[in-house]
Write a structure and sequence with these properties.
2 copies of one chain form a homodimer. Chain A is α/β, with parallel strands linked by helices. The first copy, chain A, has 2 domains: 242 residues, Type I PLP-dependent aspartate aminotransferase-like (Major domain) (Aspartate Aminotransferase, domain 2), CATH 3.40.640; 101 residues, Aspartate Aminotransferase, domain 1 (Alpha-Beta Complex). Chain A is built from 10 helices and 12 strands. In chain A, the strands form 3 sheets. The first copy, chain A, has a 7-stranded mixed sheet with strand order 1-9-8-7-4-2-3, sandwiched between helices. A 3-stranded antiparallel sheet of chain A has the order 10-11-12. In chain A, helix 5 links the parallel strand 2 and strand 3. In chain A, helix 2 runs antiparallel to helix 7, helix 4 packs parallel to helix 5 and helix 8 packs parallel to helix 10. Chain A is globular and about 65 Å long. Chains A and B meet through helix 2, helix 4 and helix 7 of A and helix 2, helix 4 and helix 7 of B.
Chain lengths: 365, 365
């Protein structure tokens, strides 16, 4: 096995579990149950129908989803969802949708929604440089919005909501791209959840959407089929040729999560331990490592921080690279350092990073 | 190597070259130049920028494309193009677009275009059960259409145009999903060509679009970014996270086409030999194997035929399966037998199928 994969702290596409990579490697030549390369199997085969069935069922089991949710596997990433959500829920609506602008990615969703109908930005972190999330007393949710949209985790800034927002009588729509299946998410309190795969659950090219059937009842009738959730729901995500390979990898990741990790609660405990270790490192560094996010809003997935000078940051990144770590440079929008510790990053890998950080600090001071 | 991959005659996703599969298998653990699993490499890395640059350049070289074309790598398959084309070229237009309805797939493009603007169906093969393509004297192209749209190859019916249609002053838009890079296509005579990968050039999940820059000058300004060709052109197909894995596989296939096959002309000769062999088999079978398509419209990619009875067809499929062949069942819309002989199917594999067919006929008569 290639040791660099274990130390891949990239913000995404991110690392996948080693046992999954080994199964994928085998499947490139032959999927055991199908006798063919995964890249040459028809999406209309019985084998692929079984893949979809099992994957839907695994996601339902992992989140305790009830029958009234569709589990969809789409293309186009979160970006396509930025548009599909308001096309479905806001086009022609009279009451505004409420959006939170808490960072780079929730900001990207705004103009796409504004194209489709009235949008009220309930809170923006722009003034504070997106270093914190809103407190409850800053959020005056209205009773009659079309829906509420927010991102549960901001990958770029390293901010994460540790509570469910909004009012129960307004549909909650949440971009969970970067923390889906990393912690329990109270899925039943949301009307629509979307998550692209390339953080915690698979390779780029497939997006999971969980949507309550009732939410789709008043969707416009004239949407192109591939932008209409109902078309994908009716066909069990086989409306047009789906990304067979990416979907299969997501299936393998859900099996790993169920059988090797033991479910989302166990995963959350491991993720908490990893984050505690790294944030502890920042907090005990006497200001050498400076966490970007306000303490109570810190992300369990993306640990963002700065060093005293840009020169030190560059030296840190170069030495980390030489030591076998990768993907630690902060997002180009904010710079600094970002350690993304998605599900596949193991506690021993995070311990190695913490060790490296301690060592680096010792030598530089 | 798994011998069944060599005998995979599936209509798509289809077989890929063995040498490509071996490189992909290695890349799942480690891409040699990047030191990481292909599934965990950032789409913002220098390595991936180089992948895009080389792939664009390979496609340009293989087709002799001039600089005024963009080479784009999108998601959503041909289905998304059925919508993106008329959103870009027909929304708000006063003159109709001309569409040919020559089979299952060109038929799917029609309602999506009609959603966006006026469409004139210039010719439909519906009355003859899509067993032939139009002759020149059946096609009265007008001088002032917004554009002409047709499919160069109908995968389901096994029909292929062996000439370029339309008038030079009307933009030609062509769905080449099932014969792209299998024969020279006179690309410079088209304003827009699209092709999903899963027939000749890669796995499902990525679509190649070649589009003349001039065609995009009057596109609507209010399209969502992911549906706007200009956004993808400006960012070299990195507008939002692209399907890194699928794009990398397409790169490997273009390298194979250039270095192992020796270019599209050589590929076309091999494809012609394969098709000649199978059609010769049909024509010399004394009516046992009955070609579906009119002789002059026969596809080099999808050889479709029937046997004297449905019972014989089922026996044929079962015995073929037992002999190691797969994917030979006709599309669910038309039934019968379909041997798809895309680029990665070798002449020896087609010879084995011809041998099996001769043998089957001998035993059954």
């Amino acid at each position: 096995m290639n040791p660099r994969n274990r130390l891949n702290f990239s913000g995404g596409p991110g690392a996948l579990p080693e046992s999954v990579l080994l199964q994928v490697q085998e499947a490139i030549i032959e999927v055991p149950e199908a006798g063919l390369s995964i890249l040459g199997i028809s999406h209309r085969s019985d084998w692929f129908a079984a893949v979809i069935t099992e994957l839907e069922s695994n996601i339902r089991a992992l989140l305790g989803l009830t029958k009234d949710y569709h589990v969809l596997l789409l293309q186009g990433g979160a970006t396509q969802q930025f548009s599909m959500v308001p096309m479905t829920l806001l086009r022609g609506a009279s009451s505004a949708a409420e959006y939170l602008h808490t960072g780079y990615w929730s900001g990207k969703a705004l103009p796409e929604a504004q194209r489709e109908g009235p949008v009220r930005v309930l809170w923006s972190g722009e003034d504070n440089g997106f270093t914190r999330l809103p407190d409850d007393d800053e959020l005056a949710f209205s009773e009659d919005s079309s829906y509420l949209h927010y991102a549960s985790n901001e990958t770029v800034e390293g901010l994460q909501f540790h509570r469910v927002l909004g009012k129960d009588n307004v549909p909650r729509v949440c971009d969970m791209s970067s923390d889906f299946l990393s912690i329990p998410c109270a899925a039943e309190r949301f009307s629509l959840i979307y998550a692209h795969a390339q953080k915690n659950i698979g390779p780029a090219g497939v997006t999971v959407v969980l949507v309550r059937d009732a939410l789709l009842q008043h969707a416009p009738e004239d949407l192109p089929g591939f932008l209409d959730y109902r078309c994908h729901a009716k066909t069990h995500s086989n409306y047009n040729t789906p990304p067979v390979f990416s979907i299969y990898v997501v299936l393998l990741v859900t099996r790993w999560l169920m059988n090797e990790i033991g479910g989302v609660e166990n995963m959350a405990r491991i993720n908490q331990d990893k984050a505690t270790l790294l944030y502890g490192m920042l907090d005990s560094s006497d200001g050498f490592y400076r966490g970007r996010a306000r303490e109570q809003d810190r992300s369990l997935m993306n640990v963002t921080f700065n060093l005293p000078t840009p020169e030190l940051e560059n030296r840190f990144l170069a030495k980390a690279q030489a030591a076998g770590f990768s993907g630690l440079a902060g997002h180009r929008a904010v710079g600094g350092i970002r350690a993304s510790i998605y599900n596949a990053l193991t506690l021993p890998a995070v311990e190695m990073l913490a060790g490296f950080m301690a060592d680096f600090q010792r030598r530089e001071i």
